Each structure stands twice: as structure tokens, then as C-alpha cells.
Amino acid sequence: MNVFIAGVVIVVLLGLAFFFVLTVTEAGQLLRGRRAGPAVEPGRDAATQELRLRYARGEITREEYLQRKIDLEEF
């Protein structure tokens, strides 16, 4: 009976260790992702993304795209 309890305790501890490692790894990846690159305002990023989408859909010309991209970078 004591061997069975010891086995269960070992399995539970290994499971907890596994989830701990996953959590620490995921947290590290999130922190690295947030620190990479310059800080960008959320509005500016959304505007740039919308500009890219409009250009990709053919709604604006290359010249319009480039000019608006320059305009957005000035803010």
C-alpha cells in the first residue's frame, strides 16, 4: 500500500513539474515578444494594417500607399 501511495505522489509531482515548466516557458516567450522591436501605439499599428489591406485589395495605388505610409510615420 505504501508503494502505491508513493507512486501516486511521484506521478502527481511529475505532472506539476511538467505544467510548471510549460508555464515558465510560455511566460518567457510572452515577455520576449513584448520586448522585441520599438513600442508602437495601438492606433498607429491598426492604421498601418488597414493601409496594407487596402493596398492589397487594390483599393489604392502604389503611390497613394507610399504617401500615406510616410504620412503615418510622421505622427
Automatic annotation (TrEMBL):
Q: Which domain of life is it from?
A: Bacteria
Pfam families, alphabetized: SHOCT
Q: Where is the SHOCT domain?
A: 49-72
Q: What name goes with this protein?
A: SHOCT domain-containing protein
Species source reads Nocardiopsis eucommiae
List the top taxonomic levels of the source: Bacteria, Bacillati, Actinomycetota, Actinomycetes, Streptosporangiales
